[in-house]
Amino acid sequence: MVHTGTLVVPLDKADAFRENLEAWDQPLVTWNTIQGKKGESIHAIAKRYGLSGSTLGQVNNLQANKKGRLTASQPILVPGRGKAPVQVAAAPAGPAPAQGPARAPAPAPRATPALSASVYVVKAGDTLYGIARQFGRAVPDLLQLNNLTTRAIIQPGLRLRVQ
């Protein structure tokens, strides 16, 4: 499966970014979401995707028991296969646009119903920290606004109040 995406960078950095990307000789990594099952070994999942268990745990903030097994079913980001095409779009320097920059590589955009500016629909790869930054908020404010705890796991499709 080929994923395409758009990465929005400040206008004054676009040329340098494009040059660096073209000169990059390492593979680009795409991330996919899998569903980890309760009781599944973090190290076994990591091995399947060429990662260490500690790296997989750090990337995903996984809930595991002392034996390194998942304590609940949960979505897990894992590296995908192949090189993903990236489209670079320049944006004026300054605050992020209302919709925020798309992460590259990202799945092709899907039609979604229009939402008010005070609601954000979580996409794969989003973090509370990233969403908070995008809307000029602090993570604790976002948590409180949405009645979430610091241990909350956000999943694609979740609608968060941001204003």
Task: Describe what you observe in this structure.
Among the domains are: 49 residues, Membrane-bound Lytic Murein Transglycosylase D, Chain A (Roll); 54 residues, Roll (Membrane-bound Lytic Murein Transglycosylase D, Chain A), CATH 3.10.350. The strands form three sheets. A two-stranded parallel ribbon has the order 1-4. Strands 2-3 form a two-stranded antiparallel sheet. Strands 5-6 form a two-stranded antiparallel sheet. With 163 residues, the protein is α+β, with helices and mostly antiparallel strands. It starts with 5 loop residues before the first strand and ends with a strand.
Low-confidence stretches: 82-90, 93-116
N-to-C order of helices and strands: EHEHHEEEHHE
CATH architecture of the domain at 110-163: Roll
Morphology call = flat
The main sheet comes to: 2 strands, parallel
Would you tell me which CATH topology of the domain at 110-163 applies? Membrane-bound Lytic Murein Transglycosylase D, Chain A
Strand order of the largest sheet: 1-4
CATH class of the domain at 110-163: Alpha Beta
Distance between the termini: 36 Å
How many DSSP E strands? 6
Structural class: alpha+beta
Helix content: 10-25%
Computed CA radius of gyration, to the nearest angstrom: 17 Å
Mean pLDDT: 74
CATH superfamily membership of the domain at 110-163, which one? LysM domain
Task: Report the portion of residues in β strands.
Answer: 15-25%
The number of helices is 5
